[in-house]
Write a structure and sequence with these properties.
The chain is an alpha+beta fold. Helix content is 58%, strand content 14%.
Amino acid sequence: MSKIEIYLYMFDLNDIMAGIKINNMLKFYTLLLLTTGPKHGYELIKELKEKLERKVSTSNVYPFLDNLRKNKLVKIDKIGKRDKKVYHLTPEGRSFTKHMFSKFGDLINIAIEPRISTCPCGCKIYSGTVKFCCSHCANEYKSK
């Protein structure tokens, strides 16, 4: 890709991001589930109920899927005798989800950063866990 193509691609991604708001776990999990492969609507709703451990309404899922389709992040294929709709991410959708997951990862890092300390050997350890990177760290913990 040339520099101009990369710039235009990033410009398009920013336009898409402006039109898609991932402002709740249902939308985030919907994207996450679509990264695992094509899914039909009922399958998505069933898996969302399992993951979120709550009732999931079709009125929350289908409008979001339609918004993803309108922004060319999801493509719909109709399969079977009843033309069941199967949703799958487009290449643009994969880029979008990768970017969203990166942003989410940044939020997680901000949240846990204050709970990370450096042990004497230089390893970073998350407070609240008792896992040791080496025998030196285990011995340090025992002596406290």
